[in-house]
Specification:
Blueprint lengths: L3 E3 L7 E4 L2 E5 L4 H13 L8 E4 L4 E5 L17 H18 L30 E2 L5 E2 L1
């Protein structure tokens, strides 16, 4: 399989190659990979697995199969089961992130004190995947 351009989001160019996603490395990449690795170690499989880099210097993440809603948002994003599942996933992410509090990681925004969790800061419906919030970007 060649590269398939993925659309949506407010990120750099993102492509799918087989079972992986590749995007431009930035100053946040090491922190994001540390967080994703931590979340997966805690059993949160709804986030991609970091796989390092490729020969073009891009980061490599696992591809998560699902449907990411676009605008206009479909009705399923408003279903109570979806909203509850999303809230539960966000809670699990926050709980698992506490192990990274105090680590010397570079994030996009300044740290707010007291530091209690690593905050997602963009847990929007446009980054969820379906099968009832089967993944979150």
């Amino acid at each position: 399989m060649g590269e398939e351009m993925l659309t949506g989001g407010n990120s750099t160019t993102v492509v799918r190659v087989d079972d992986s996603v590749r995007r431009t490395v930035g100053p946040l990449t090491p922190a994001v990979h540390a967080l994703l690795s931590r979340l997966r170690a805690e059993g949160i499989t709804e986030v991609p697995e970091p796989r390092g880099g490729d020969e073009d210097g891009r980061e490599v993440l696992s591809y998560i199969v699902g449907v990411v809603p676009g605008y206009p948002l479909p009705e399923w994003v408003w279903a109570e089961t979806v909203l509850v599942a999303a809230a539960q996933l966000l809670r699990r992410i926050h709980d698992a992130s506490t192990a990274l509090v105090g680590e010397d990681l570079v994030w996009q925004l300044p740290t707010h004190h007291p530091v209690e969790v690593i905050c997602h800061n963009d847990f929007a419906r446009t980054i969820w995947c379906s099968a009832t919030v089967g993944c979150a970007g």
